[in-house]
Amino acid sequence: MKTDDLITALSRDAKHTGPSVHGRLALAVALGFASAFALMMATLGMRPDVTAASRNMLFDLKILLVATLAIAAVALVRAAARPEAALPKVVLLVPALILMFAIGHEVATQLPAALPRRLVGDKWAVCLVAIPLLGALPLAAILTAMSAAAPRNATLAGALSGLAAGAIAATFYGLHCTDDSPLFVATWYSLAIGMLAAAGAGIGRRVLAW
Q: What are the angstrom distances between the C-alpha of 22 and each of 45, 79, 101, 153, 196?
């Protein structure tokens, strides 16, 4: 093969490789959303007052927060799949601003004596179990897709995969959870998502290294 032909072939393969990896990630994320929703409905179900809750700003902020975090985390995973890509950390600004606004609203509108109770909520233990369980299949799907990629940092790529899986799980768990306090979400949802991120980092270090 001539040198020019070799370069042309390598360039053509490179063009095919990118979309293939990103296509696998898109499929994995779609499967993650579907599996988390199906498992939530089969085990926990929607909260009975979900229609009324949807007219409550705190419920809306809760779902908006975890949904935007899921979108941001997926964007980070997509970037982490390629060794030359820079992580678009700015995408985390949107969920961060939503959380800051929600907590500010909570503190401004609630009596100080009520805040500890709102932080603990009613289902913190369920939250710490349900989100990791709902996120297990999304994490497996995303890590499987990432195994065909070439992340520069396998541990970070795994952690971001866990972050995405956890945020996806939290989005659907939020439809069941009756604790809408931003303090509750910031504490217990974050811990539950962090558990998946830690699991993803540990698994990623072993299966995503190259």
A: 32, 9, 33, 17, 22
Structure tokens at 195: 């558990």
Nearest Cα to Cα of residue 20 among 64, 81, 96, 94: 81
Residue that is written with structure tokens 């497996």 in the block: 140
Distance of CA 121 to the CA centre of its chain: 22
Instruction: Give the domain ranges of the chain.
Output: 17-207
- Average pLDDT along the chain, 210 residues, taken 10 residues at a time: 50 51 92 97 95 94 98 96 87 97 95 95 95 98 92 94 98 97 97 98 91
Within 10 A of 62 (CB to CB), how many other CB atoms are there? 27
CA distance 83 to 63: 32
